Amino acid sequence: MPTVNGTRRIKWKYHDEPTWEPEECLRGCDRALLQFHELNPKKPGPPAWVEKPPALKRPRRRPRNT
C-alpha cells in the first residue's frame, strides 16, 4: 500500500486495477491498514488517526486437579 502525498494505492478485491485513494477515505479500515503494516514493516506507517486495538490478554490456564 504505497503512499504519495496523503494518498494510498489500493488494490480492491474483485477489481483488476489499483486506485489512488486519499487517506481520509480509508477511515474505518483501521484493521486492514494495521494488518498491511504488520506484514510490510519497511513501508511507511499507517496514518496517525489509525487506532491500534488494545493487546488481548490470553486467559490463564488453570492447573489440572490430579
TrEMBL record:
**Gene3D superfamilies to which the protein is assigned, alphabetical:** 2.40.50.40
User: What highest taxon heads this organism's lineage?
Assistant: Eukaryota
Feature: compositional bias, Basic residues: 55-66
Start and end residues of each stretch annotated as Disordered: 38-66
How does this polypeptide assemble, per the annotation?
Component of the NuA4 histone acetyltransferase complex.
Instruction: Give the protein's recorded name.
Output: Chromo domain-containing protein
